[in-house]
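Re: that chain you flagged

S.,

Sorry for the slow reply, it's been a week of failed gels. I finally had a moment to sit down with the sequence you sent. For the record, here it is as I used it:
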Amino acid sequence: MLRYNSSASVQEPIRIFLYNYQIMSDNFWQMYKKSKSYQDVLECYYQFSKNQCIVIETLLENLKLSLNDDHLKDELHVMLRDAFTF
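Prediction finished late last night. Pasting the structure tokens below so you have them in one place:
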């Protein structure tokens, strides 16, 4: 996304998103390592998935994206696809 718009109004929400995503990811792996059952693992993954949705929704809200731009659509599509896969 920064390739097409590197203004401060875009950089800051992305920086916050990446920071929050890193914390969320680290927390997931810590909890995963402590899991003692499949139920714990599933619960951990469920919470991680919910958190992914929240940070992405927050990013979109902060950016107030205009999805009329094809480049932004493509970048958003890649970001969402990558966010929901390991």
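What I noticed first: Residues 8-83 form one domain.

Talk soon,
D.
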